[in-house]
Amino acid sequence: MGEKRRQKRMPRAVREQQMLDAAVRTFGQRGYRAASMDEIAELAGVSKPLVYLYLNSKEDLFSACIRREAAALVAAVREGAGGAVGEPADRQLWEGLRAFFTHTAERPDGWSVLHSQARTHGEPFAAEVAAMREEIVAFVTSLIAEAARSAHGDPSLPDREVAGLAQALVGAAESLAGWANTDGSVSAREAAGTLMNFAWAGLGGLMEGRRWSCP
User: What is the domain extent for residue 50?
Assistant: First the structure.
């Protein structure tokens, strides 16, 4: 009886986050199809009817997990880069990437939900992740454009080329995070350094007018 009273006194927002924590862990480790509401409720320490009362359905619960994890990832990247505001664009990107890899390593189940589960189960899940990705791409695009302005005094790289570079950089970061999360020896700093060495060095060549000639 005492436990039931404590559950009733717990604020709804706190209880809901507790359910989302359990859901992210279950979806991330078991997959969307295999995860059950019974398992999520048990892990959260609540009844299954209470999960349905708060979050309506398995689909709505999964969508809520995607939105929370996406918002947390975007916030982490922006906060990381924000610590280098006023610094050159490459330093801001470095800090953003390091924050990205740190976050995905610390929340592997959340990254699995975003990168693997949501993308393989169609709309509206994929759309939620696409919105998050485009926000990060827009942020990276702004840094690349700023780097071009710093290098030449004007945005000499064509907009389409900047957009393509940003898409490629974000795609590489996503792939590298998946690899890093399966290899415990790879640190967030190492992953960020690998990507900066690969991408930013090449970008520097573009800014100096060096381009690979297509045969």
Answer: 1-55
The verdict on residue 88 lying in a domain is yes
| Amino acid code (one letter) for 45 | G
Q: How far is the C-alpha of 46 from the C-alpha of 184, rounded, in Å?
A: 33
pLDDT, tens digit, 9 for 90 and up, residues 36-94 = 999 999 999 999 999 999 989 999 999 999 999 999 999 999 999 998 888 888 889 89
Count Cβ atoms within 10 A of the Cβ of residue 13 and give its class: 0-12 exposed, 13-18 middle, 19 or more buried.
Answer: exposed
Question: CATH no. for residue 117?
Answer: 1.10.357.10
Query: Is 157 within 8 Å of 208 (Cβ atoms)?
Result: no
**How many Cα atoms occupy the beta-carbon half-sphere of 142 within 13 Å?**
10
Number of domains comprising the chain: 2
Burial (0-12, 13-18, 19+ Cβ within 10 Å), 174 = middle
Whether pTM exceeds 0.90: no
